[in-house]
Amino acid sequence: MLTVASDIEVLARFGRALADPLRCRVLLALRAAPAHPADLADALGVSRTRLSNHLACLRDCGLVVSVPDGRRTRYELADERLGHALDDLRTAVVAVEGDRTCADAEEKGCC
Question: Domains in the chain, start-ordered, CATH in brackets?
Answer without folding.
Answer: 5-99 (1.10.10.10)
